[in-house]
Amino acid sequence: MQEWISDASSSAGAGERHAPGAEHEEPMREGAAIAGLRAGILRFLQRGPATAHGRRLLRQLVTIILLLPAAWLVWQWTHALLGLPHALGPNPPEWTHRFTGRLAVELLLATLATSSLARLLGWRSLLLLRRRLGLISALYMTLHVANYLFLDRALAWEEIAGDLTKRPYIILGATAFLATWPLVLTSTDSAIRRLGGARWRRLHRLVYLVLAAAIAHSLWQMKAVEPRPVIFAVIAAGLFAERVRTFRRRRPRRSPVG
């Protein structure tokens, strides 16, 4: 009896050591886990959170993340005003001006990219974030303009008027800023209902004017070729091209006469 048990155990152990395909089970499980993760991410990008509570949490999380640069900026200015070490450089207003302008353009590009990615790749969940991206882009644009008016020029209107003649790119920046506000003020659900879907969509095509003016504002003030504004311009051109292509596809074709 003891001998039978011993033989059975040894043969079982040998079977475990030499079972065909056993050495491939672990990589297969890892591959299945990675495939499942990819499928889950793709499903999330296509559909977003399954519940209204999940969608609300996603918007809140993204809002907090997008406001972190503003919180960091306030922290750095607090240090600068108290005479403590800070990261704003020797000219804090100029540094702040560039920082807020760059963030405004980046988020504006991201706002338009959500629609393009949703159309091209089916990532519909990105549309949940479009309004937040647009509003926070407008926030950074407002900080950009306020920095120029209050910190850089201290509301010296003669200097500001002189800037408008000497630096025409400021007019483009002002155009982008002013054209943003009709979009901000009509970004609520009640405004959409009040205007009607078709009129609201026509009004919000102003976003293309805002982006074009903001990109031109960035490019015009370059004293030498800088990669970031050029990259922004290339991305914007791609987004414009995709939108024109989509518009042409949706436009009803005229039937041939006769």
Explain this structure.
By secondary structure, the chain is mainly α. The chain has helices at 2-18, 22-47, 52-81, 92-121, 130-152, 157-166, 169-185, 189-195, 197-203, 206-220, 227-250. The longest helix has 30 residues, at 52-81.
Low-confidence stretches: 1-16
Strand/helix succession: HHHHHHHHHHH
Give the distance, in angstroms, between the N- and C-terminal Cα atoms: 99 Å
Per DSSP, the total helix count is 11
Question: What is the percent of helical residues?
Answer: over 70%
- How many structural units, i.e. domains? 1
- Portion of residues in beta strands equals under 5%
Structural class by secondary-structure content = mainly alpha
Overall 3D geometry?
A: globular
Compute the number of strand runs: 0
Largest sheet: none
Any key phrases for this structure?
11 helices, single chain, mainly alpha, disordered N terminus, 258 residues, 80% helix
Short overview:
With 258 residues, the chain is mainly alpha-helical. It has eleven helices and no strands.
